[in-house]
Each structure stands twice: as structure tokens, then as C-alpha cells.
């Protein structure tokens, strides 16, 4: 057996022994390495004098029972039969950004799907949020994910109900890339209502999990998998989240890791947006579409378009001409002398500007006076502008 194979088997076995994100196990791994650690926890190690430190006798006994029951050869064969694989730190497919988790780094990752994880992770964004989302939240998540996918970004989420599912569907509908980080084995379809969606992600994208085949989720595993979502991606977007939402855990972990944290605002009266708004008060950047997300997480030059209202014809006028136009009263005529007094310039200058405005259709001449055209006068009335001299 080669050293590489030994490492693979040892880490596959340890995913049966250690819980995801267990920092004590991470310290053991850093100190002794996977091959030596699994031997220490095996029946052979129990019979000797060497044993890991830092754990109580009862906890250590539990580890030993798990180690004895682990069958990494079977797990690797099972994942291969499902069309998947197991990747470990140091392998070509391992995403280096997961190393930012330190001792909480995954022991290894079980994958289903053909894309290369490390390459996908380099250009990925997490879209997370409430399970019991509103139609607005689902729409925003789906639209954001579709926009990111169309721009060549991988959308990462947790395959849960609500925002997660909407994000995955948006990316898939756009023909883009999406990956789901699961809190169970990648061969387990959970939640059951998303069995079809998870199957589709496995065929068209990637399913990612820390737990070996056949493992079922627990509440703590959902929280712990959030750290993988945060570390794996360039940034995390939260779309709807109450104050106690697990997606806020993902966002704050992302911030701790130096990733971009973004939030989509919602109604101030919505409890499902309260957590997002709390983030936006200082921990997150406000985003409303995919272009704004990419401007933050993307490379140089990937800028969102400039936001502005509609350009009106009067916006294109020379400042001097605009001042004369603004001085014209609504509903009546004014002479060039009156306008010159109102604007504070010479009569000849005003006359020149009036003819310029006349050629552009803003004003008309009536005898010795000048008046706004019906279109211009009406626009002023509709926008509630009170012109100098108006009644």
C-alpha cells in the first residue's frame, strides 16, 4: 500500500470517528498525522501505551469504538459506486482556502459530481438565507443566483428549503454551476422534499460533504457545515434571515475568515429581513443584484453599471440655458428683461438662451414674451416644481 493510499484510508476512517469541525481532532491530526492517529485510536493502539491527550476517558472510549467499527475500504468503494470520490488536504483537488479554518478544517471531503472542486471554488459565491422565506426572498435568491451563474460564478448553498433551494434552482435554470454542501452523506437525499433537486445538482454540479456515505444529519452538523460554505467561497450573500438564523452564522464566519459578506435588504417591517438588516449596519455590504456582488468578489474591471434615474432632456442643457428655463414662470409669458433680472445676467445673453431653448422645443414666443411649451409646462406641473413667478 502506498503512502498516499494509507493517508486516504486513514482520513476516510477518521470521518467516521471525528465530528465535523472538531478542533481537538484537528489538533491531533496536526500533531500526529492521520495514519498514526487512526492507529492510536484503533484496537491496536488501545492495547499499547500511546493514546491521544486532551480527551476524557469516556470520550476517548467513544472514539475508539468508532475507530474499530470504521471500514474505509467499504466507504471508498461505496462512494466510487455512486460516481463520487474522497479528497483530502494535499491532493490536487483540495481547495486551499479551507486551510484557513485551522484545526477546524475538514478531515476530508466526500464529493459527487464531475467538476473539479478546487477550480470551482476559486470563483464561487455562497447564497444563503431563511428556510421559511417569503416570495420576495425566493425571487431575489433565484435572480441573484441566475445572474451569478450567467457571469461564470459557481453558486454554493446548503440545499435546504427556502433561500438555499431557490439559489440552486436559479443557477441551474440559467445553465450555470452550483454546488451543495450537505450536513449528511452525499448519497443521502436530505431534506427529502429536495431529493429531485439534490439529484440534479449531483448530475450537473457538485455535492460536497464531510460525513461518509450513509451518514444522516443532526442539528449540530447543520451549524458546523456552515463554516465550510463560508471558507470555500469568495463571499457570502444573505437573502432574508431572522435574528437567530443559521445563515448569519455563515456570514459572520465568512467575515472572520476575511471573505466578503453581503446582504440583500428587505422590508423594514419583515422579521425575516431583521437579521440581514443587522448585518448591514456594519458587518456586510448592501447588494441588490449579481452585478453588485461580482463587483465586490470579482477581479479588477468587473464593475457594476452606474446606477442613476432616467435622463431627462433638460439634464443635457448647458447650465446657463437651464437657469433661463427654470426662471420661466408656469402658465404665463415673461419678457427677456424679466428673465434677465431673475437670472442675474444681461438681456442679450437671455435672448440668446431663449432662442436656443426654442430650437430644442422647450419654449415658444408670444409677441414680446416667452412661454414654456405645453409639454415643458405640463412636466413641471406633474413633478410638482414651483417655478419662479408661478401662481
Automatic annotation (TrEMBL):
Q: Which Gene3D superfamilies match?
A: 3.40.50.450
Q: Name one GO biological process term.
A: DNA-mediated transformation
Outline the extent of the Smf/DprA SLOG domain. Answer: 86-296
Q: Which domain of life is it from?
A: Bacteria
Q: Name a Pfam family for this protein.
A: DNA_processg_A
Annotated InterPro entries: DprA, DrpA_SLOG, WH_DNA-bd_sf
NCBIfam families attached to this UniProt entry = dprA
Question: Would you identify the family this protein belongs to, as annotated?
Answer: Belongs to the DprA/Smf family.
According to UniProt, the name of this protein is: DNA-protecting protein DprA
Amino acid at each position: 500500500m502506498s503512502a498516499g493510499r494509507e493517508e486516504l484510508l486513514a482520513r476516510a476512517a477518521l470521518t467516521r470517528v471525528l465530528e465535523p469541525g472538531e478542533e481537538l481532532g484537528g489538533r491531533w491530526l496536526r500533531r500526529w498525522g492521520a495514519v498514526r492517529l487512526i492507529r492510536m485510536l484503533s484496537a491496536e493502539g488501545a492495547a499499547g501505551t500511546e493514546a491521544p491527550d486532551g480527551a476524557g476517558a469516556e470520550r476517548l472510549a467513544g472514539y475508539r469504538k468508532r475507530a474499530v467499527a470504521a471500514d474505509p475500504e467499504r466507504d471508498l468503494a461505496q462512494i466510487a459506486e455512486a460516481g463520487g470520490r474522497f479528497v483530502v488536504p494535499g491532493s490536487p483537488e483540495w481547495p486551499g482556502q479551507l486551510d484557513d479554518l485551522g484545526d477546524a478544517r475538514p478531515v476530508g471531503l466526500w464529493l459527487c459530481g464531475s467538476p473539479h472542486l478546487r477550480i470551482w471554488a476559486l470563483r464561487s459565491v455562497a447564497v444563503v438565507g431563511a428556510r421559511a422565506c417569503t416570495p420576495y426572498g425566493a425571487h431575489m435568491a433565484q435572480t441573484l443566483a441566475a445572474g451569478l451563474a450567467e457571469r461564470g460564478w459557481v453558486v454554493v448553498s446548503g440545499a435546504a428549503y427556502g433561500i438555499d433551494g431557490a439559489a440552486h434552482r436559479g443557477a441551474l435554470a440559467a445553465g450555470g454551476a452550483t454546488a451543495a454542501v450537505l450536513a449528511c452523506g452525499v448519497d443521502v437525499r436530505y431534506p427529502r422534499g429536495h431529493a429531485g433537486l439534490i439529484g440534479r445538482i449531483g448530475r450537473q454540479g457538485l455535492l460536497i460533504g464531510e460525513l461518509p456515505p450513509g451518514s444522516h444529519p443532526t442539528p449540530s452538523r447543520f451549524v458546523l457545515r456552515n463554516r465550510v460554505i463560508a471558507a470555500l467561497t469568495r463571499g457570502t450573500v444573505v437573502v432574508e434571515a431572522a435574528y437567530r438564523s443559521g445563515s448569519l452564522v455563515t456570514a459572520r464566519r465568512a467575515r472572520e475568515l476575511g471573505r466578503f459578506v453581503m446582504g440583500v435588504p428587505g422590508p423594514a417591517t419583515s422579521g425575516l429581513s431583521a437579521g440581514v438588516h443587522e448585518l448591514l449596519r456594519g458587518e456586510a455590504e448592501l447588494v441588490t443584484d449579481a452585478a453588485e456582488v461580482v463587483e465586490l468578489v470579482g477581479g479588477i474591471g468587473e464593475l457594476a453599471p452606474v446606477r442613476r434615474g432616467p435622463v431627462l432632456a433638460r439634464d443635457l442643457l448647458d447650465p446657463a440655458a437651464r437657469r433661463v428655463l427654470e426662471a420661466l414662470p408656469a402658465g404665463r409669458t415673461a419678457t427677456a428683461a424679466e428673465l434677465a433680472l431673475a437670472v442675474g445676467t444681461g438681456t442679450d445673453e437671455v435672448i440668446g438662451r431663449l432662442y436656443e431653448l426654442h430650437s430644442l422645443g422647450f419654449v415658444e414666443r408670444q409677441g414680446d414674451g416667452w412661454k414654456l411649451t405645453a409639454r415643458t409646462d405640463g412636466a413641471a406641473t406633474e413633478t410638482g416644481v414651483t417655478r419662479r413667478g408661478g401662481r
